Structure to design on (604 residues):
């Protein structure tokens, strides 16, 4: 019962915070006065003056799309070069060498696309300069890009017989200055107060409380008896010849809190530490865990309410929110139940006590004892729904069905809240698809928010909806046929295939999380995953802007008695059904080879 209360509280607090934030975002993006305007508006105007930005410019959809692509392309090249050359650049107290070209391309693609997939260990691969000037900057601007494209689409619904969607440069400036910077400043200060590190020190070396012994492969020797004076290691009285005694530990330092804040709120997800938010210096306690976990979905959830206010139809925004929220609640329930009851193998012959008497019970493998099953399951649900990718537990150790749901949320096209901006414009593409199908069923011309949905919008909406499945299935299909990829898997059989499928689902869904059982740092995987990320990010952006441009040129149609309501429970049901139908038809064969096969093999 206590776990159920936890789940309900997490969801309730999320909604309570999202509603006022949604109202604030609407005011900030329409230029209305807010409680921060006196401080932030002069900063905004200064940026316009320095960058020679026309505040009143109205771009058509093609110019807006070109601006997005050029801006992202410059960021991609800059971040690539910054990594390759970091060995000769300042801000590198550990003297780390330049990053190899394929990993640099993968990382640059990852952060520019708001994916933050990491095929490397952050604290031992990238310098402070690369982390701060490269990754942190992209955390802000890639998140802002998704929100900017969403507002261009919203203007397409609102405007009548015009081709102007606003200015990409104005949108980016307002999003960063009025929304992302103040929000993340508050969250970063809260994280520092909770114990997350924030400094510019080099890595520290500290003495262990108790020494440990490792073998030649670096694995800890269980039951080892260590004699520090003689420098010998014995097990059951037998000398271990190749053993090494470890008395010190490497402790990474650096500006973590500032990066953790934006990685969560911007649905970026890349961890400052290699083990992400499971690391005690990146997420030290229950307080920081709560702040970080709620931040995963805060902006995506708030944007649903912003959408309702922008189109002056709060019921429509609430309907979209409910479709997302119900999918999230269902996913959370499935993951929570499966992790709590664990698998038959864990309890077989009393091998593992999975009862909940004086302990967490269930499947605790891969989870932090600090957080337990409830918080870990909630985080896993939130992060794969939000296309965030940060983790506080290892998804590779989840039960087959629990791991499948985390995978499926990404495969649906990051529309269960999804990334900042991109989740909502992805769901609106599904809404267009839904009204079109519903219109065919009743023999009426489909309409959405007073605009006719015609073949042009439908073609682009289908591409937006199918971009993620195409990227994931084509990418993972090719990878599965490459013999060398099998060497990157930690497991064989169905679970090994799940590791591969999860990796491409994560990159195709612009998520960035991993099963933590897949070594993806090879030339083929770095390049192929990088291409998947770029395809799945920018094709939907172009498609969304094309739809926005077409809608803006249309006239408004008055609602009649025969107009399909898009704010009632029936529409919410149809929208969820279409989202799940596309996901099921696209991914059921692949899921049957991975997590479903593993689940049924466990039942035998």
């Amino acid at each position: 019962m206590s776990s159920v209360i936890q789940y309900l509280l997490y969801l309730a607090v999320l909604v309570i915070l999202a509603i006022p934030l949604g109202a604030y975002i609407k005011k900030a993006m329409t230029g209305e006065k807010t409680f921060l305007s006196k401080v932030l508006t002069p900063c905004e105007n200064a940026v316009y003056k320095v960058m020679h930005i026309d505040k009143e410019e109205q771009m058509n959809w093609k110019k807006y799309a070109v601006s997005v692509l050029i801006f992202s392309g410059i960021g991609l090249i800059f971040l690539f070069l910054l990594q390759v050359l970091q060995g000769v650049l300042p801000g590198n107290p550990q003297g780390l060498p330049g990053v190899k070209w394929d990993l640099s391309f993968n990382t640059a693609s990852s952060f520019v696309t708001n994916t933050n997939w990491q095929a490397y260990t952050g604290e031992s691969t990238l310098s402070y300069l690369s982390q701060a000037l490269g990754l942190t900057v992209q955390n802000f601007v890639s998140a802002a890009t998704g929100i900017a494209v969403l507002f261009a689409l919203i203007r397409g619904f609102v405007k009548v017989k015009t081709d102007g969607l606003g200015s990409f440069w104005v949108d980016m400036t307002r999003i960063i200055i009025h929304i992302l910077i103040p929000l993340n400043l508050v969250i970063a200060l809260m994280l520092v107060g909770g114990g997350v590190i924030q400094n510019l020190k080099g890595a520290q070396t500290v003495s262990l409380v108790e020494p440990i012994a490792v073998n030649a492969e670096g694995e800890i020797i269980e039951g080892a008896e260590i004699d520090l004076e003689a420098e010998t290691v014995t097990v059951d009285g037998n000398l271990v010849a190749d053993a090494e005694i470890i008395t010190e530990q490497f402790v990474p330092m650096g500006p973590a809190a500032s990066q953790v804040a934006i990685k969560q709120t911007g649905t970026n997800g890349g961890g400052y530490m290699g083990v992400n938010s499971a690391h005690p210096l990146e997420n030290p306690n229950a307080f920081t865990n709560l702040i970080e976990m709620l931040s995963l979905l805060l902006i995506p959830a708030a944007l649903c309410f912003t959408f309702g206010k922008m189109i002056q139809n709060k019921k429509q925004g609430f309907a979209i929110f409910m479709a997302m929220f119900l999918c999230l609640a269902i996913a959370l329930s499935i993951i929570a139940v499966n992790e709590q009851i664990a698998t038959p193998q864990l309890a077989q012959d009393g091998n593992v006590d999975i009862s909940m008497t004086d302990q967490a019970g269930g499947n605790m493998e891969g989870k932090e004892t600090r957080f337990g099953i409830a918080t870990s399951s909630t985080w896993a649900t939130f992060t794969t729904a939000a296309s965030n990718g940060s983790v506080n537990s290892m998804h590779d150790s989840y039960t087959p069905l629990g791991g499948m749901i985390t995978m499926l949320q990404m495969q649906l096209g990051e529309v269960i809240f999804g990334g900042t901006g991109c989740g909502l414009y992805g769901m609106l593409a599904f809404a267009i698809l839904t009204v079109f199908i519903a219109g065919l069923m009743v023999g009426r011309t489909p309409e959405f928010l007073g605009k006719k949905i015609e073949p042009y919008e439908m073609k682009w909406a289908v591409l937006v909806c199918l971009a993620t499945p195409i990227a994931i299935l084509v990418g993972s299909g090719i990878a599965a046929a490459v013999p060398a990829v099998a060497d990157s898997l930690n497991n064989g059989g169905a679970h090994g295939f799940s590791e591969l499928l999860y990796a491409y689902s994560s990159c195709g869904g612009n998520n960035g999380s991993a099963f933590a059982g897949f070594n993806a740092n090879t030339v083929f995987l770095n390049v192929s995953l990088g291409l998947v990320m770029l395809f799945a990010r920018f094709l939907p952006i172009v498609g969304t802007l094309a739809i926005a441009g077409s809608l803006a040129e249309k006239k408004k149609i008055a609602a009649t008695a025969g107009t399909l309501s898009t704010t009632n429970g029936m529409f919410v049901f149809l929208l969820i059904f279409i989202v799940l139908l596309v996901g099921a038809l696209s991914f059921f064969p692949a899921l049957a080879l991975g997590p479903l096969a593993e689940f049924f093999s466990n039942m035998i």
Strands lie at 204-214, 225-227, 232-235, 238-239, 244-251, 447-448, 451-452. The mean pLDDT is 87. DSSP finds 19 helices and seven strands in the chain. The two ends are 31 Å apart (CA to CA).
